[in-house]
């Protein structure tokens, strides 16, 4: 294993960078395949969790299959990104693949028990995210400036490609037996030899791991996600207490994993705020179309999943080209265009909710293209806002914010859709009932997108370093 020492000379550092860059470019495809196999399960199980609950006589608890893995995802995103600043990416990656395969086998052979299925899903999510976090950290640390945006765009594209396969698989596989969904990520076992051979085995020499600080912050993040899925005043008390404890730890600890300079970095914190607002309703896009297709247009689940697959294919294409687009147009122009697409897509869906499901699919392609396009400039800007040795923590925080925000947004979405007041009246002639509820929900989403656009205009200077 290679250690990075503060006494390393410039020539040695350049040679080490080129070696790690070469290994990284060979390792990233394998990491991406494993991440894809794990990620496609997110949307697949988000689509069919109710079917699983019904088949196991646990209908009232079915949503746990979606919410609890989401909570795990939010926490481990932060944890893995942080660990990559201290521990060898190779060690973390091998542990992740092992967890992913074990979770897959546990879920398949324990498919007759709801609680085993739930535990297996959490293990799968935790294992799959290792590869995603390591991919991002390696791309931001070990690639040249003009390569970062391209690989970030590809990563984003693969996420949506996995979502497309996941939605399709969820609609298709459940037609005979949903338990076979668990076996799909197990194919990642074939990537292990390539990961072992090419992933850099490098760690920071002399750096002390702030285990206490990481544990406090992980508990804080977990309680936030849990509260919005299972509201309780005691969780609020716990969140406030842990926030205070963490603040004291950062202030008085000699080596906190998040330093004062990290937290007071205005550029990075403005990027984090934008990340939170942009992704707030990201998880709600699948269930709202399930409701629209089923309740308004009386469409079968297989047709709905096909339409959503088209939407995610569009997102994949946008993701592939987002890196080169940023290199040509710059971050600010790309973010401005993406923000407008979000507003247009959501507002258009609200207005034309009962016109045509295919028109809604086209509008969904517009706003999914917008949410896809904001990813790369946000992460790319963050890599320049932080020192290289803090990029892992930066990735962890951004991943945590993205998934926690989407989980909170999902909880807000569920609460609003369950509120009878949402069905009483729709704008622009939309009839009351389900049509009014979904239309009003899209107006709320459009308002959130408009807020993101306003915040982007306010903080646009945070995106103007190095590349305009």
Q: Return Rg in Å.
A: 22 Å
Ends distance: 38 Å
Helical region count? 16
What is the CATH first-level class name of the largest domain?
Answer: Mainly Alpha
The string of secondary-structure elements, in order, is EHHHHHHEHHHHHHHHHH
Q: Characterize the overall form.
A: globular
Helical coverage, percent range: over 70%
The total beta strand count reads 2
Q: CATH superfamily of the largest domain, called what?
A: MFS general substrate transporter like domains
Major sheet attributes: 2 strands, parallel
| Number of spatially distinct domains | 3
**Beta-strand percent range:** under 5%
Average pLDDT rating: 79
Output the structural class.
mainly alpha
GO molecular function, one term: transmembrane transporter activity
Main location: membrane
Subcellular location: Cell membrane
Membrane topology: Multi-pass membrane protein
SSE map:
Elements (H helix, E strand, L loop, with lengths): L1 E3 L5 H46 L8 H20 L5 H21 L4 H29 L2 H29 L18 H7 L3 E3 L6 H19 L3 H20 L7 H4 L2 H13 L6 H12 L4 H29 L1 H21 L5 H29 L5 H27 L16 H25 L10
Parallel strand pairs: 1-2
Helix pairs in contact: 1-4, 1-5, 1-6, 2-4, 2-7, 2-15, 3-4, 3-6, 4-5, 4-15, 5-12, 5-14, 7-8, 7-15, 10-14, 10-15, 10-16, 11-12, 12-13, 12-14, 13-14, 13-16
């Amino acid at each position: 294993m290679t250690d990075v020492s503060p006494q390393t000379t410039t020539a040695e550092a350049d040679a080490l960078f080129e070696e790690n860059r070469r290994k990284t470019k060979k390792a990233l495809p394998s990491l991406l395949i494993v991440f894809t196999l794990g990620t496609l399960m997110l949307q697949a199980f988000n689509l069919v969790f109710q079917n699983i609950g019904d088949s196991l006589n646990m209908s009232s608890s079915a949503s746990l299959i979606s919410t609890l893995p989401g909570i795990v995802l939010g926490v481990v995103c932060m944890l893995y990104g942080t660990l990559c600043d201290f521990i060898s990416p190779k060690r973390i990656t091998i542990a992740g693949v092992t967890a992913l395969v074990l979770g897959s086998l546990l879920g398949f052979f324990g498919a007759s028990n709801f609680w085993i299925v739930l535990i297996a899903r959490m293990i799968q999510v935790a294992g799959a995210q290792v590869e995603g976090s390591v991919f991002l950290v390696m791309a931001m640390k070990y690639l040249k400036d003009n390569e970062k945006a391209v690989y970030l765009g590809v990563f984003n594209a693969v996420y949506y490609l996995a979502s497309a396969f996941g939605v399709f698989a969820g609609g298709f596989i459940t037609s005979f037996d949903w338990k076979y969904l668990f076996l799909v990520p197990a194919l990642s076992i074939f990537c292990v030899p390539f990961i072992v051979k090419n992933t850099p085995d490098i760690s920071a020499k002399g750096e002390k791991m702030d285990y206490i600080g990481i544990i406090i912050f992980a508990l804080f993040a977990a309680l936030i996600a849990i509260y919005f899925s299972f509201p309780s005043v005691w969780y609020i008390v716990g969140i406030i207490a842990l926030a205070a404890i963490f603040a004291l730890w950062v202030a008085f600890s000699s080596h906190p994993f998040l330093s004062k300079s990290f937290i007071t970095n205005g550029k990075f914190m403005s990027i984090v705020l934008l990340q939170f607002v942009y992704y707030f309703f990201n998880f709600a896009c699948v269930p709202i179309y399930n409701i629209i297709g089923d309740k308004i247009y009386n469409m079968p689940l297989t047709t709905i999943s096909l339409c959503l697959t088209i939407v995610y294919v569009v997102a994949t294409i946008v993701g592939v080209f987002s890196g080169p687009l940023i290199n040509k147009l710059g971050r600010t122009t790309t973010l401005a265009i993406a923000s407008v697409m979000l507003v247009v897509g959501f507002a258009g869906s609200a207005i034309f909710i009962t016109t045509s499901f295919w028109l809604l699919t086209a509008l969904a392609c517009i706003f999914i293209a917008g949410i896809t396009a904001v990813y790369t400039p946000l992460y790319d800007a963050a890599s320049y806002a932080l020192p290289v040795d803090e990029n892992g923590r930066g990735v962890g925080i951004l991943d945590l914010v993205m998934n926690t925000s989407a989980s909170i947004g999902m909880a807000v979405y569920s609460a609003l859709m369950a509120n009878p007041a949402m069905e009483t009246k729709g704008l622009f002639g939309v009839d009351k009932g389900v049509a009014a509820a979904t239309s009003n929900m899209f107006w709320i989403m459009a308002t959130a997108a408009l807020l993101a656009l306003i915040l982007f205009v306010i903080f646009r200077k945070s995106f103007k370093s190095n590349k305009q």
